[in-house]
Amino acid sequence: SSKNIHLTDSLCVIGMVDEKQRQQGIIMRVQCIHSKHIQE
Question: Is the pTM of this model over 0.85?
Fold first, then answer.
């Protein structure tokens, strides 16, 4: 499931760089951290 991990990383990066949608970015960042925590 390395594709899922790559997708999660991509969403995390998008959330971090998207300052115009800061609220959504924060949500995506949290989801990224949460997903990584579950996978590890």
Answer: no
